[in-house]
Design a protein that fits this description.
About 30% of the residues lie in helices and about 25% in strands. The N and C termini lie far apart (about 55 Å). About 50% of the residues are buried.
Length: about 500
Amino acid sequence: MTHALIHEEVARRAADRPDATAVVHRGAGIDYRTLDAAADACAAELAGLGAGPGAVVPVNLPRSPHMFAALLAILKCGAAYVAFDRRWPAERVDALTGLLDPPLLVTADQDGPGPDPGPEPGPTGRIPRWNPATRTLEDWAARAAAGARPPRPDVAPTDPATVFFTSGTTGLPKGVISPHRATTRLFAPSGPLAFGPGHVMCQAAPAPWDAFTLELWGMLTTGGCVVVAEDDHLLPHVLQRLVVEHGVNTAWLTASLFNLFLDVDPECFAGLHRVFTGGERLSGEHVRAFLARHPRIALVNGYGPVESCVFATCHQVGPADIDDQDGIPLGRPVPHTGVHIVDGEICLSGAGLALGYLGDERLTAAKFVDLPVGAGVRRVYRTGDLGSVDDAGVLHFHGRTDRQVKIRGHRIEPAEIEAAAGQLDGIGQCVVVPVPGAQPGVYDKLALLYTAIGRIEAAGGDPLGVRRRLAGRLPRYAIPDTVRVVDAIPVTANGKADRQALLALSLG
């Protein structure tokens, strides 16, 4: 499966077990035969609209079987997809669409089945639109049975499958181009993500995350079942209901969400077989409580930047890990992934690596470098994380080399928020400061401190106005929790922003 295409693996599962349930949505099941056939018919139509090798197609749909069929259809055309979050502000969606220059936009924001240029002035209003939800999946599958055939492009596992947008330092997100094999290598039979028939996973992660890849393709490429959580945010009682009503036995939760679930309802995990967590340092206190209450549920800590697609390492957590002086271990590499420590920095190699950053050759050259390994040379990704590998080959995390932080599981570059704030009228200097949480090395909130130009109320530069205007430019998770105007940005002796003083101001 390491050198496989995502859509071909799903088609194999449909051929092997056509009547098996692939997706459960709103209590109804869709079998593999219907899902794959519907995707074939959708692909036949998309190809005629310009989807093909070299194209990147944005998808702005709610999480649903129609969305999954559309993603499969795009891949069957030989194109790559970008999954947008429907809660993103229009300005952000337009900016990303402009970067992609796509042949069409897949969206439910129209009534007709075919392309519609739309009246909006932004990029999303100038490109054709296509809506798969104008027909049921059964109707799409019937069209395939009647002769609608997908194209047969020449696509390799090293070709792009998806583009993940993640926080950047320039004010625009970075587009990480991930190939097919980066996903399929995760679910090798010999690895910790060896899913298959009998595995039922909740799909609750936002579509732009690589965790969405874990939940969706982890099931559909191996013969498991995806159960879609309907609400934007997964809650403890919803998880427990999905376990009881639909047999969910596998779940992914960010470390922050894992902690919250334990605090609110520690019994909500009952019935699960495996819980995957990560994205931030784990809390030893919460891990101890989980292991004591649910000793039969495997708890797996996963580590990996999006540039190595979902996970680079995994570690099943045990009681002995809680008192590790370096924190809960990050674990050993997943299949076809290499971990290298270079001057204290964690570097990753192998089939999981992204092809680079969309439209940014300079950043690609800086972060993806050739590294001498043994008798040869490997292409590696410089993570910016500090770490070490112990004598048992287990990776441990020691911090960051830059300002990047994880807040509630989201990767955030403070410089992106500063760039967005700096473009607002009424703002002079501005600095974003992460606010530490109760656990060492974990940040709970973001604070924006800035100086004002002129009368701040008149210019819309008051804190409430600044936060409101940022909400129109940034995703919800990147909007600072605290926004405060200060007389001046304090600096250190060498003239740099004094972040400790700023943190004190933000808490004052």
